[in-house]
Amino acid sequence: MQEVLNNLFPYVMKKPDQLWKSVVETLQMTAWAGVFMFVFGLILGVLLTVTREGSILENKPVYQVLDKVINIFRSIPFVILIALLMNLTKVIMGTRIGVKGVIVPLVFGSTPFFARQVDAALAGVDKGLVEAAQSMGIGPVGIIFRVYLKEGTAAIARGTTITLINLIGLTAMSGYVGAGGLGDYAITYGYNYNRMDIVWAAVIATVLIVSVVQGVGTWIAKRSTH
Amino acid sequence: MRIIPVCFFVIGRKGVNVEQAMISLKHIVKTFSEHGSGVHAVRDVSLDILPGEIFGIVGFSGAGKSTLVRCINLLERPTSGQVIVDNVELTRLSSRALNQERKKIGMIFQQFNLFATRTVYQNVAFPLQHTGMSREAIHQKVMSLLAFVELSEKAEAYPSQLSGGQKQRVAIARALASDPKILLCDEATSALDPQTTTSILKLLKKLNQELGITIVIITHQMQVIKEICQRVALMEAGQVVEQGDVYDIFARPQQPITRNFVNSAGNAGQLEELLQDAHVLDGIEDSARIIKMKFLDSSAGKALVSYVSRTYNVDLSIIHGNVEMIDGRSLGELVVVASGEKTQLDAAIAYVRQCRIEVEVLLDAGSAE
């Protein structure tokens, strides 16, 4: 086994710790940014849904502002977003480099997309259910938690999976601010030295991570569908 | 100067006056504004629905009946007008107070609107959760409601595993959970087959009689009105064009749309087709008339046909007959071809009218020439 790996991935096996460190960094970035993205995106997505015209907390100004801000952030390429947010990152995290330095741009880069995913998921919740809950005298807060989020769980799980996989894609660019990760590993040690086995190792690791995320997401979605 | 005495008689059904109405809609107008142009869904509708009655609102789709029923619990806020339910003016309440009042008004829907991620038990428990009720109290309430709608054994099933009729039963149990005084039914049987419709209507009647719940039924099926309603309002283009006791509406429909609906619920429509069919009229003598008689209440019991035939020496041949029970009263209809001498026919018809039977001459072959 060791022999085979040494033959197939000579440069990877010379410094296996490097690969492992990159995997950990990618997971760290994804996890931290993912948690914030999930919370903020869920809040924004719910706000989009309930403030839309004809919805339970219809509010045109709030909806319009949210809609525009989300569109603006979605249209900025991630690499530029890192640069754009560097001062904010410094204020919030105390540094603008390393894993810490890339969390803020990752959150800004993925949250608007996730908000749209949540909005789309909640749009799939039957309006009749909202009406039924209203007819029972359930208030807006009850409708958000007990109808929209509960009935939209499967769709939100699917949206979360898509966004997390996107987020893993974004983490590949974090090498620009010295945060490491699998993208940085592939470019710095693979591409720059023309060592294809390192690039392949990064590909395989990424595919494995994405598969696990997809698997968990599908499982949750399935479990909450009846 | 002469003094003209003016008397107003306000007589409600069973002597109940209007102030005791369970639901009182006053000059309800609902206009949807779409891209500047307004759609008038409801135009100045006033209705009083009495405690304990089953009131039907019937009309074609787009007549505004669904919008009107949503104005009762303010799922649609009327553009103008007052909604008074159980002596509380809902249109004046804050949204918090309105939600309290809404618990008194249950509602069921054409598409059932059950929560797909919750079991039957959880669906029925839904309105009771977060109300400070204990878990055991909720359990008892839910199980007794499921027993009432005869679905106890389906407590742990999900809605997707139920038939349409069962889903509507769950929806009814859920609507009853907060002990409402009123149940609004928005096309509640329109997605069901005729047999299931009958069983749901029976259930509605049961909860009306056993629990004293006032029921408002929105439907386009006159059959539904005939089976369980006591009073009915007909809507067309956002307005109530005719209303009254279901029996009276069936016995003496005034508006064309009402006749249309009344015909749709029986086989009188077939009669009209029959009369248009030339062959039926071929064998009729020159002096014959086709006469429709309406027997209200117990008048159906008399041996009228043979008596008239003998006394006035006219021949009566029956081409259509029907007796229905509406709201516990009989409504009979008989269509005959009467032939004989003109004066005798006139006398016979006069006699029948004298017996308080409504006579309508559908065709007079004698006068046609």
Describe the structure.
- The complex is a heterodimer of chains A (226) and B (369).
- Chain A contains twelve helices and no strands.
- Chain A has 226 residues and is an all-alpha fold.
- Chain A has a single domain, classed as MetI-like (MetI-like fold, Orthogonal Bundle), CATH 1.10.3720.
- In chain A, helix 3 runs parallel beside helix 7 and helix 11 packs antiparallel against helix 12.
- The relative contact order of chain A is 0.15.
- Chain B is 34% helix and 28% strand.
- Chain B has two domains: 247 residues, 3-Layer(aba) Sandwich (Rossmann fold); 95 residues, ACT domain (Alpha-Beta Plaits, 2-Layer Sandwich).
- About 4% of the residues of chain B have low confidence.
- The termini of chain B are far apart.
- Chain B is α/β, with parallel strands linked by helices and 369 residues long.
- In chain B, helix 4 crosses helix 5 and helix 12 runs antiparallel to helix 13.
- Chain B is built from 13 helices and 14 strands.
- The chains are: A mainly alpha (226), B alpha/beta (369).
Identify the quaternary structure here.
heterodimer
Second CATH tier, the architecture of chain A:
Orthogonal Bundle
Please report the distance between the alpha carbons of the first and last residues of chain A: 45 Å
- Which strand-content bin applies to the residues of chain B? 25-35%
The amount of helix of chain B comes to 25-40%
Number of domains of chain B: 2
CATH A-level architecture of the largest domain in chain B: 3-Layer(aba) Sandwich
